[in-house]
Protein 1
Amino acid sequence: MLMNPVLRLSKATKRFGGVLALDGVDWEVSPGEVHCLIGENGSGKSTLIKIIAGVHHADPGSGIEVDGVPYPRMTPALSKELGIHVIYQDLSLFPNLSVAENIAIDQVLGSLARPIRRGKMRAIAKAALARLGFVLPLDRPVARFSIAERQIIAICRGLAADARLLIMDEPTASLTRAEVKLLFGIVEKLKRQGIAIVFVSHRLEEVLEIAERATVLRDGRKVGTFSPAELDGKRLAELMTGLTIEQTVSARDMADATLLLEVLGLTRTGEFADVTLTLHRGEVLGLTGLLGAGRTELGLSLFGMARPDAGEIRIEGRPVVMGSNQDAINAGIAYLSEDRLNLGVNLRQSVKDNLVLPVLSRLAGRIGWIRPGKRRATATSLVSRLNIRTAGIEAPVQQLSGGNQQRVALAKWLATDPKILILDSPTVGVDIGNKQGIYEIIRELAGRGIGILLISDEIPEVYYTCDRVLHMREGRVVGSFLPSELSESELEKRVYA
Amino acid sequence: MRDFLARFTGRTEIYLAAVVLVIGALLSVLSPYFLTISNLIDLVETYSVTAILAMGLFVVLVSGGIDISFAATASVAQYAAAFAGTSLGWPAFVCIPLGLGVGCLLGCINAVLIHFFRISSIIITIATMSVYFGLLMFVSGGKSIYTLPDWLTTRVVFYESQMANGDVIRITLPILVMIIAVSLTFVLMTRLSAGRQIYAMGGNPEAARRLGVNIAAMQVLAYGYLGLMAGVAGLLQAHRVGEAVPNALVGHELNVLAAAVLGGASLAGGIGTVPGVILGIILLAMLQNGLNLLGVSSYFFQMVIGLAILVSTSITGLSSRPGRRRARPGEATGAARV
């Protein structure tokens, strides 16, 4: 890059108490550049952004320059004045206020007795939207827009504030694939208008797709700044974690194993149609496809949460009809949605209390009395079955490492002794290091004979973890692959075609 | 024009106005007295105190909080002004600001407690309600002041005209003060930066803090404003009934809350409009008056109040529940290019 950097950090350091959150990071961003900032949770990304935004003050010895001018004491107001605008992951929009007010929010802030000039706000909002080529109804409250549209509104707020450096924190986290494409188009436009964009993400494929440069942080230090040409997903993952990640196809041929689940012509109007699949004992079956392909809906129907209109479900050869998820649990099915795994533990409660929660009614005697010994025994056996590393079953879950917390969340559902485990997007929002842990657990459980249906739109995840992969599109199963039959990139091409 | 219409369709106020019209029509058929000028003017004056309190509470609700203590605040303000005017013999220009100031101060105390102790506003104001009211009963010994000074009790009529049929249209002090309070609240909440910041804070407190909204100042403004309105309401109440009774307003909280939530103000904050709250009051007033005219027991009205709160909050709750499904690809982009 020949142009002078719009932002330059030198030896940026920040210590919180005894923790060194950021350790001597040198970094620069050029005008009109798309620069990705990547790292696992706790790598210092957020701290870095907050220092630039003036929310945190860097420790002495650190330097921040904007357009070559050093600013020893950055404040939120100064940062804003210099044209730095951060869009946080939650977008910081006001759902009850209109599009115009959200975009021209500066007209609302400040002096309390100032009259509101609606005409001016509408003009500002309209102009900002026009820069991206959009027209939105300006008087409608933001709550009535989709997440992608809200993202546009949040970006326009930055444009209205004359941002020259736009920092987007995990902007794609809750977007569908089509929406991500739309966002990338917008980023392209912003870039052409000379705005520098810092794109914080942990979705590696996206980083490689959009970045001109990518800076990797790990444990508060800068690992390096790379051009996407030097990187691929595996290399990036290694840079982020510092671990060599051996991704090997773990698929086994399970066709001869006992048949566990048969689904014949299952249909639910508007969601999925004519789905036929089989799941064997100990098999990991991947179910992939774009968001909205009907994967989650199918999973919910298999768990008795949405009654299918046609078709049959057989478990171990016997047809079952499930009117509720209680029926499904009794039939030996457990279901974990993405938020169950992330939020599925009560951090302050003990490992024991977390583990026995789903089976309390089974442990209870006739009058609802639960013998303490029974709870202890159940918890202890689960801890050893899943190798949960904990100081004891009475330790609060928050003392456990992230990976072991995940194990608790999983083990909790194993207490119901499922034959079939449906996992919906189990690693969404999980760091790479912890993802590997989850994959290990999945393989382990399969090894014990549980049939696992893994629903995911992350191609590497299904490719390297599953024995067989089904591809869903628009509610139908359109393909079935063994990982040995094709490469990861071929599978990706088919799904995202 | 289509834009203009689109702004109003699907808004609570429209449904509420329709309900008001239907019930109004029904009542005027059932009771010939209902739709007479003198009954309506009477109603407006009777409900002026409720309306003023509702304006204050509306601002607090929009800010994302709630206040249970305003009736106690109004009673304290009323008693302070009445005591200063009667027992101390202070003049009106001291007593009125005193009453309003006491109201405002008690509201600000709520704001400070809520902001600095970070305890939910319902807990704080239940506690301060008890403190304010207990203090008032303790100091006053529960005794009413019956001999109020003339400046407080003399009826003031700003406009009067007699209709052909003998009905009298009369704009009295309570009605005028109510009109001023409503206009002031409307301007504050829709036309001034401060009001929009209160909406912003109620809609997304975290984002408001991040964007530099002075949260403490907004809390003081919202609760202080309610305190001020409570002071106004307390003085007006004394003016109307000609005496200061310590517990006259207590128990009134629920009616005011019902009017505000009926009018579409959300207990979750950030939602609600002045016209909506006014419609909520009109609806309640009509129900109470209508049931009265039809000879239904007043206990029945209490039940109606409770039901009104239940129904209107559950409707708001249901309609604000996020859709169970995420937007499908393409769906989001379509609307963006209208």
Protein 2
Amino acid sequence: MPAHDVLIIGAGLAGQRAALAAAGAGASVAIMSKVHPVRSHSNAAAGGINAALNVDDSWESHAYDTVKGSDYLGDQDAIEIMCREAPGEVLWLEHQGVTFHRNDEGKLGTRAFGGASAARTYYVADITGQALLHVLYEQLMKNHETVDRYEEWFVTAVVQDEAGEACGAIARNIRDGSMELFAAKSVILASGGAGQAFKPTTNALICTGDGIAQAYRIGAPLMDMEMIQYHPTTLAGNGILITEGARGEGAHLYNAQGERFMEKYAPNKLELASRDVVSRSEQTEINEGRGFDDGTVALDITKVPRKRTLEALREIVNIGRDFAGVDITREPIHIKPGCHYIMGGVKTDVWGATSIDGLYAAGEVACVSVHGGNRLGANSLLDTLIFGRRSGEHAAERARGMAMPRPAESSLAAEQKMIDEIIRRERGVGRRVSEIKDELGTMMNEKCAVFRDQAGLTEAHEMIRRLKEESLHAYIDDRGTVFNQDVLGAIELGYMLDCAEAIVMGALERKESRGAQFRLDFPERNDGEWLKHIVISQANGDGTDVPEVSYSEVTMTQWEPQERTY
Amino acid sequence: MSEYTLKLRRYSPESGDPAFWEEFKVDLDGHRSVLDGILQAKDREDGSIGIRCSCRAAICGSCGVKINGRPGLACHMHLEEAQRRADQNGGVITVEPMGNMPVLKDLIVDMDAVHWKKVQRVTPWLIPEGEHPEREYIVAKEAMVDVTQSMACIQCGACVSDCLSMEVDPLFVGPAALAKAYRFVGDPRDGQQFERLKDLSEDPHGIYDCTHCFNCIEACPKGVAPMSQIMRLRRIAGSDHGIDDRNNGHRHEKAFVKNIEKNGLLHEADLLPDSYGGKFHPRAVPELLASLPVALKGLQRGKITPKKALLHAHKAPKDVKRIFERVHSQQKRYELNLYVSGKDEDLPGGEEMQDVNQGAQAHGTPASSSAERSPNQA
């Protein structure tokens, strides 16, 4: 059985950063991902990474913006750590080889971003996430002697020992279908978000909530799951993202009547208000009949000088041309709010440790919580790197001096049986996996989007319970072992359904409007009753599916809740 | 909504059967991608269709395939465009796995065995000289913009798929890996520029193995223009560092240019000996002897005559000379770069540049313009 000090599941930025940190701390490391690491969804973070690195900026200012952006739901101790460590992290990235944009003096240059009181977003054109991901992968290749890479391995379960501590994982080698039990002293989940539970979404097809569900199933509590960020600028139909960098560079939003409507909703920050505010404003315009016929409003990038657009927003020039048939340097492009990011996830402390000993989580899969009710643009890359590194360091420390656990072989047999059972299901008896996924996504995007209410959410919850039932008999076509993506799709559907249920339960529970959660039936923020995290966990702890709601305090350090205007 | 027929190349290593073609009918708007089409077929008809895919927005590089015989990303080609191209030869959109890499299943190829192995060949990480500074490295803005073009590579393998040199020499380091090499050679923070270039020049499968076929430039969905990056590696290796490689790559290039300058058009009989230092150079003798059979065959078939081969009378016309003079008189070398968009159109003289860009885009190649080459020269 392969055995490592630290096993990392997921190889986006959080996972790769954790791997490098753990290896740097002397641990033997394995990093595993269901796709090749550079295919990870960190690629999609186009705009940049926030850090108060300029001498006239301060981490306190960055932290305050983040707290305010979170609608005061973010834990301030974690936010302080993230913002304080941000400048060092950006410099570390620069030293590893990230080709950050420079100013005329040859120093790191910045761009403006939403919800920020200073231009503190560092970037590589509009391929920042991609550049970071590929540079970290360069470092993984460099450190191949201390970091073993398992590329295209699909984890089906995290394994616990008798005391309940995480001691490894079971994974399927996608290339040949073989199953393997991996032993590890510490396990780090870094497998990203769950956006595929919504349709459309900006998220990649791989973002199916795997890690969130894997942790949840073995008893780790989930937190802030109701907080789903709808990004203000996505293409109608396919949900493809137009980076916030466009507005950062000066693009405006207009309704169908040609009004720059953000003047009404956020007179000071206008298009650069927090994402929840901008998305809500757009959706209000659309719902009240001032949008275009295709249910969109217009993003006008022609306000940005063309040379600048071609140099700094090259990727969305391509996206406009290839996916909407629009030359964004010449004409406005139609956009709408679309599912983009989950602020919630597996509840962790500031070292990425979950409530299960030996199990860590970092990046979008986790909820530290630094984003609270709403994440600021360009804080996600930062979150992945800071907490990826911290969990890598802590996991390596935990492993030091510890004996290698020997996870029970019986767990491997159980997972093999689970997969065989899916493959054996009779065709045509139940529904197709893809059909259920489609119904789930469409429904979530209808009932659990920018505006929510009790009736819609209740309906959504009932529907999820039904889909969970149906998924137990859902059938697939592929009976093979080599690249059987079909059977993985069936497992992913289960993960998405677990995530969706936690999302809807959190949204039902939170009877107020805060951050990304806007309840039409409770339109005000209610600090008296709801300035607290909602936690969803499996009550029984025996594998039966009985979700339960509880609460967790919000950590306050120096910022008292205020009315939030932009 | 329109109906499209997708003809997919299927292969299952477990079945024992050879690869075969299978047609699927899909119903989608024409501006949806070929990948959307394949996923619809997979969702509705046959979940066993194998294709790697993730982002659907041409940024993750998973879905490299050949559509109607040309390499690219399945998510990056509209159905209507694919249909239009298919109409020119038969009418059905065909999708098959990329070339130059072994097929694992259906549209999935073994990237590790070829592509990633080659990437690893170029020591793909930054090797700065000495300790890093306390804060960031101070480097010219233009230098970072310059390497952004090769950073834009998403490692999809489309260029590798259709590399003609790799077809002949599977050991060729290849377009993607060499573009990756430029990302370090062009990065002023890297301390190993000479060593990297020496290594890739001396390697018989290195930078001089490229035959300028432009296939990689055509294939690249991100405008990385791998061949241009290879040529830049050559210029920095040969002209800046004066690396005279054992493959005679650099000498061959010099001989080629000299040949044209002198004759106006290529005089092949001189090219070969000149590439080895001249007809009487000891290095040239064995090469000339080795090429005798080819020369004799040419004579036999009337492709060359002794007179043409030995007494080449053609002299370069004045216009050719003028071009050479103009190029030689330039103080700086100018390079093409996607991320440098030239002059702003608001400034005088900007219109011209912008028209060039648009013309280039209309022909499906990325907009680019000349930019001063600055990294590593300072």
